[in-house]
Every structure is written in structure tokens, then in C-alpha cells.
Design a protein that fits this description.
This protein is of the alpha/beta class and about 325 residues long. Helix content is about 45%, strand content about 20%. It is built from 14 helices and 12 strands. Helix 1 crosses helix 4.
Length: about 325
């Protein structure tokens, strides 16, 4: 059924950027961590963030009005219920994901120009400069934290003993696989600085002895071989169809005969308007990559088949947590 709009609801969408911008500015200035443990005055906060006093007060009052901060006796503190989410000292903090969203603001703001000239967005720095990489990897960890165990259960690794996690980030899914399958060993393959982030997480999880960390670029380097299960989680949307075909072929060589590849990503319906989250995410790839996008099951199957995989199957459709599997004959 078509979505019904009113003038009021359309204006609501058009102006929703205001609340978004207030939150992201608070994140960029780390205000919520600053006043998590004790309330501070506007003067104290302005001094700590090198802010203009009047501008800082206006921002603090707006964040208080939205409920992110509490204001009492002209002092401000983070709403207690939000401290676990918005303080950088909390293990449950979602700040890395919000910092990544603040970075996306810069590229999405160019969308009108991009539709005229094509993507991606113009940048004054490298893609992962100025903390972008750590924010991105942190955001991926935030997204995986509550989903990894369920994804592993849906994949059902069964007798698999040798996993390769391609572009595995800080290791959230690899850790879930290793915990679910005590006999499994794993290889995590990602960029050199990301591998070092993963090393820290595997060490903290007590799993460093069961994983081989291999630095490299999966779009350029040959993947290590001898695996019976390959996970390609939230990767194919970054790539063009041609890049994905080359990556599937690379993974094919890394798998033993009978090995399985599992792709976790958006899987679009044929007309590309559903799911809505996937259609919007395609825009995210338009503004942030040279050829990425979201793909239909038919397109994913075609690429895997060209790479000589067979028994291609859609395991589940669940937004970004949709799963497609295939096997090496």
C-alpha cells in the first residue's frame, strides 16, 4: 500500500535534519561524555570545548529540550538513561556509530550535486582520514554486537572447521563463530590497521590462539586458501558488480572443494524499491563509493554462478542481515 503523506508529515521529513544535526554536533563535540559523570555549567562546558558561550548555551538548551541532556540550576548533564549509550567510557556506547553518521552527513550533503554529475562525493581528505576508519570499524561493531549470534545460528556452520572472514573488521562475527564452534579455527582478512584493531578484540576475548590475522586488500590481494566456510559480511554493497565478480572468484580459490560462501547484506526485490532500508542504503553507496550499491538476489546469484559457485540459495531476508549461500563444487 502506498504511503500516505500530508503537508505536515512532508514538512516533518524536510525538517528532521534539525534534530539530527543537533545530536551529531553534540557527538562531534563529545558533550555527552563530558557531562556524563557530573553536571557542568554552560561556561564550564564552553571552556572545555573551546566554544562560544552564547552558541554553546543555545546548543545545550536545544539538546535539553530534546531530552538528551538534563538542565537544572543552569547546569547540564547527560540524561542518566542515555549514559550507557552516549558516554565514551561505557562498553555499551554507540558513539562510534554516531561518529560515523556525522561523517556521512558531509557526503550526503552533496547528494543534489551528485545526482547531476554522478558520484561519489568530493572529499578534501582520504576516505578514512581523521578518525574515520576507527569510527567506521567501531560503527560496524556496534551494528554487529546484537546480531552476530543470531546470524551465526542462521548460517549454521555445522561441521565447518576453517572459517575465513573477508573484510571482517574488528572480528565481531568471527568471535561469534568461534564461540559457537569450539573446534573451528579462523582467518580474518582486512586492511592492516583494521587487523590491529581486531588483534586487540581477539586478545580481550581470549581467542587470539584460534585466529590467523592476515592484512591485505581483498580487491587486490589473493586470499589465503584451505577454508571450508567463507563469510562476506556487509562487503558487496561497497563494490561494483565487476568488483564483486572478481572477489567471488578470489573466494572460490580460497575455499576447499565443497566449501561454502555466505554473503550478509541487503537483498533487494526486483523493482529495487523494497526493502526501503535497502533503497536508502543504495544512496549511501552512491555518495560514498565509486560503483557500490544494493543488489537483488538474481544479481547476486548471477555473480556467484559466473564465479563457478552452485546451489545458490537465499537463506533469509532481513534488511542488511539478509543471507545468501553458495557452494564450491
Amino acid at each position: 500500500m502506498a504511503r500516505e503523506f500530508t503537508a505536515e508529515s512532508i514538512f516533518g521529513i524536510a525538517r528532521s535534519f534539525m534534530e539530527c544535526r543537533l545530536l551529531l554536533t553534540g557527538v562531534e563535540m563529545n558533550l555527552f561524555s563530558l557531562v556524563a559523570s557530573a553536571p557542568l555549567s554552560a561556561e564550564e562546558i564552553a571552556g572545555k570545548v573551546s566554544g562560544d558561550l552564547r552558541a554553546t548555551m543555545v546548543l545545550l538548551d536545544a539538546l535539553s529540550a530534546l531530552g538528551f541532556l538534563e538542565k537544572k540550576d543552569n547546569h547540564y548533564r547527560t540524561a542518566p538513561s542515555l549514559i550507557p549509550l552516549l558516554s565514551d567510557s561505557e562498553p555499551t556506547s554507540i558513539l562510534p556509530g554516531l561518529q560515523h553518521s556525522a561523517h556521512l552527513w558531509q557526503t550526503w550533503s552533496q547528494l543534489t550535486d551528485i545526482v547531476h554529475r554522478g558520484g561519489p562525493a568530493k572529499r578534501g581528505d582520504t576516505v578514512f582520514a581523521d578518525g574515520r576508519l576507527s569510527a567506521f570499524i567501531g560503527a560496524m561493531h556496534v551494528g554487529a554486537a546484537g546480531a552476530a549470534d543470531g546470524i551465526v545460528a542462521a548460517i549454521n556452520p555445522g561441521p565447518a572447521k576453517a572459517l575465513i572472514d573477508i573484510g571482517g573488521g574488528s572480528g565481531s562475527y568471527t568471535i561469534a563463530f568461534l564461540k559457537a564452534s569450539p573446534e573451528m579455527k579462523a582467518t580474518l582478512f582486512d586492511l592492516p590497521p583494521v587487523v590491529e584493531m581486531a588483534r586487540k578484540r581477539f586478545s580481550e576475548a581470549g581467542l587470539l590462539d584460534r585466529v590467523t590475522l592476515v592484512p591485505g586488500d581483498f580487491n587486490q590481494d589473493t586470499l589465503p586458501s584451505g577454508h571450508d566456510l567463507a563469510l562476506l559480511s556487509a562487503i558487496i554493497h561497497q563494490n561494483s558488480p565487476e568488483q564483486n565478480l572478481a572477489l567471488y572468484q578470489n573466494i572460490f580459490q580460497a575455499l576447499a572443494s565443497g566449501g561454502r560462501i555466505v554473503i550478509r547484506d541487503h537483498v533487494m526485490e526486483t523493482d529495487r524499491t523494497k526493502p526501503v532500508s535497502g533503497a536508502i542504503f543504495a544512496v549511501n553507496m552512491l555518495v560514498n563509493t565509486s560503483g557500490g550499491g544494493t543488489y537483488t538476489f538474481e544479481e547476486i546469484r548471477e555473480g556467484l554462478t559466473k564465479a563457478k559457485f552452485d546451489r545458490v540459495k537465499l537463506l533469509q531476508t532481513q534488511g542488511m542481515f539478509s543471507l545468501v549461500e553458495a557452494f564450491k563444487p
